[in-house]
Design brief:
This protein is mainly alpha-helical. The chain is built from six helices and two strands, in the order αααββααα. Helix content is 46%, strand content 3%.
Length: 201
């Protein structure tokens, strides 16, 4: 799996979330999501902020943590989400992006990671948050089969430690393997999501 492949998969995952976000009307912004602490509006605001932060990091100016902070959700959130998605896809497009260093201030002051690794993080986020958003607004979500192996590999490297206890953590502690044979179900459980949400909440 090359870094270019990851960018193609990331682009597809992001564009799928844009299609779902287009279905979010103002009356849906207050709905609960599988991210227990976030409503639909707060989830979309978080997703937009991450796009803006990753886009800044790809351009070499992502070290300012303020760039990663979400804006208050409201009727404008859907439009802001679409704009942020366009921005990150454009920022990831140059050929040398996988070789650049990305500042990741959410991991700590001065922390940088290789671009190809940052793109992998972004891919995981938008597969999982894509499912979160779709489930919250009553839409189906299908994992691109090409995403299964790389996302499972990356998710398997994410620590399941005390950092997941933080209210700011997008991932809860892992749940037991559901035994369904579904790659998406395994990914969700490894990141603390019940594939049956909201049936078990």
């Amino acid at each position: 799996m090359t870094t270019e492949d990851l960018r193609e998969l990331d682009r597809a995952a992001v564009l799928a979330t844009v299609k779902t976000a287009e279905l979010v009307t103002p009356d849906l912004l207050g709905r609960p999501t599988p991210c227990a602490a976030w409503t639909v509006g707060e989830l979309l605001a978080h997703m937009a902020a991450q796009h803006r932060g990753f886009a800044a990091a790809a351009r070499g100016d992502g070290a300012d943590l303020a760039l990663w902070h979400p804006r208050p959700p409201g009727p404008q959130t859907g439009e802001e989400y679409a704009e942020s998605a366009d921005a990150v896809l454009a920022a990831f497009a140059p050929d040398d992006v996988p070789q650049r260093l990305f500042a990741m201030p959410e991991f700590g002051a001065g922390v940088t990671v290789p671009g190809h690794q940052a793109i992998g993080f972004h891919l995981v986020d938008y597969v999982v948050h894509g499912w979160d958003l779709a489930r919250a607004v009553g839409q189906d979500y299908e994992l691109d089969p090409a995403c299964a192996e790389p996302v499972l590999r990356i998710v398997g490297q994410i620590p399941d430690g005390p950092e997941r206890d933080s209210p700011e953590s997008p991932f809860a502690h892992a749940l037991p393997d559901p035994g369904t044979g579904s790659a998406l179900d395994r990914i969700l459980c490894m990141l603390g999501r019940s594939p049956n949400w909201p049936d078990r909440h």
